[in-house]
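Saturday, quiet lab. Running sequence design on the structure tokens for the scaffold JK sent over.
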């Protein structure tokens, strides 16, 4: 047993299910994220198990389910402190409520555990250090979604940083990740969802999106934008408020609750002025009466869920897909075997549904750093001793590790779930 060990409980050679345990002298540990993935039948896949009594604290990088979905499990038999930013804590209630509604049958916890988790919550701002047993912890802006954090841990004489999901560019909602705080890091655990690809510049994607929306509306059509309820929906609302404020824009689904939480936490929103403007000029769908009306005239409808696995977006697709005048603009990542991916690849929700006549387009609004952004993060660590790649498909992670070795002479580890990494 080494003094300091990292246990990869999830997110090893896979995107999502982030879960890392940092153990000191075998009797005290911190949990960095405890997320969930879904298999092809939508059954939740939990991370590996840990002994909850040893855990001195759970730190959540951000509110996406692949980072927080399994945290309530720890509260079945224990009550460790739950540390995250205020928006992450507030939004987690709704994300987990929704998760229980959709997948409760498979989950070894209930709403009570979610409540215990929220009762144990300790909201922290960026750049404040807190003590948890032998560990000192600091949250740093990760630029991924509002409230997202990189987690910096000072332990013994080492500095560890786990990026969570990270983005290095400016968007309407987020400033770039604060990589000035990476300088003294010795152990870097980095996500690499897009380890070997770069995204097109954001301004170009934004311009193309605005142009296409205008085109459809000018022809008398309606645009449906199925979108993740945390982050992407509000980003699209900001874009429309800035460039096309005169349009009829509706928003529907969990987007609404999350928008309210973001407006309560303006210091975590980069262009909160645009988000406020969007909330005041655009229309919130309040129920079925609004919903039935929204798609009948030329308008833009932003609705969850982003991959069309449920939520009001599925209703709107059925209503608008028959007409060539209308359009479905996908602005979020579409996982395999989801209705969203089927729409892009086969032009239909699934084999049981008719072909879609409406115009279909996908826009690369990513909230993850591309290859060059990840390199900037790695280069920022001037005292790097251990580099560990997580939250990445196996092929991508190995290709990135190989690239780093050949071009920068940096050795990176690509662990499997279940691996222990001992820090000398
Ligand atoms: Zn993630
Ligand atoms: Zn995320």
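Result came back. Writing it out in full:
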């Amino acid at each position: 047993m080494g003094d300091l060990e990292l246990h990869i409980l999830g997110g090893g050679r896979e995107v999502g299910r982030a879960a890392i345990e940092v153990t000191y002298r075998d009797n005290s540990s911190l949990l960095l994220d405890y997320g969930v993935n879904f298999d092809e039948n939508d059954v939740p896949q939990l991370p590996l198990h840990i002994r909850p009594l040893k855990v001195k604290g759970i730190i959540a990088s951000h509110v996406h389910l692949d980072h927080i979905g399994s945290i309530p499990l720890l509260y079945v038999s224990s009550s460790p402190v739950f540390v995250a930013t205020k928006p992450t804590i507030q939004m987690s209630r709704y994300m987990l409520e929704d998760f229980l509604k959709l997948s409760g049958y498979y989950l070894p916890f209930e709403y009570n555990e979610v409540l215990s988790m929220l009762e144990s919550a300790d909201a922290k701002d960026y750049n404040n250090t807190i003590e948890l047993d032998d560990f000192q912890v600091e949250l740093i802006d990760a630029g991924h979604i509002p409230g997202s954090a990189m987690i910096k841990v000072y332990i013994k004489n080492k500095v560890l940083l786990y990026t969570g999901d990270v983005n290095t560019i400016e968007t309407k909602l987020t400033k770039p990740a604060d990589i000035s705080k990476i300088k003294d890091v010795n152990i870097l655990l980095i996500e690499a969802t897009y380890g070997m690809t770069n995204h097109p510049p954001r301004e170009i994607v934004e311009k193309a999106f605005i142009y296409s929306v205008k085109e459809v509306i000018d022809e008398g059509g309606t645009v449906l934008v199925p979108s993740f309820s945390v982050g992407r929906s509000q980003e699209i609302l900001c874009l429309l408020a800035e460039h096309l404020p005169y349009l009829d824009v509706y928003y529907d689904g969990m987007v609404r609750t999350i928008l309210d939480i973001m407006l309560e936490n303006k210091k975590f929103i980069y262009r909160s002025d645009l988000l406020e403007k969007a909330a005041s000029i655009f229309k919130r769908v309040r129920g079925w009466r609004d919903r039935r009306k929204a798609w009948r005239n030329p308008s833009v409808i932003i609705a969850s869920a982003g991959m069309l696995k449920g939520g009001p977006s599925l209703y709107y697709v059925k209503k608008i897909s028959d007409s060539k005048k209308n359009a479905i603009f996908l602005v979020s990542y579409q996982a395999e075997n989801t209705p969203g991916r089927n729409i892009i690849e086969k032009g239909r929700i699934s084999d049981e549904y008719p072909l879609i006549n409406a115009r279909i387009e996908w826009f690369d609004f990513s909230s993850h750093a591309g290859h060059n952004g990840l390199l900037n993060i790695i280069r920022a660590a001037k005292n790097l001793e251990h580099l560990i790649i997580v939250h990445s498909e196996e092929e991508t992670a190995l290709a990135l590790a190989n690239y780093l070795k050949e071009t920068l002479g940096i050795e990176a580890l690509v662990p499997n779930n279940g691996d222990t990494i001992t820090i000398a």
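Notes for JK: DSSP finds twelve helices and 22 strands in the chain. Residues 16, 18, 64, 66-67, 165, 391 surround zinc ion (ligand 1) (CB under 6 Å). Ask whether to fix the surface positions before the next round.
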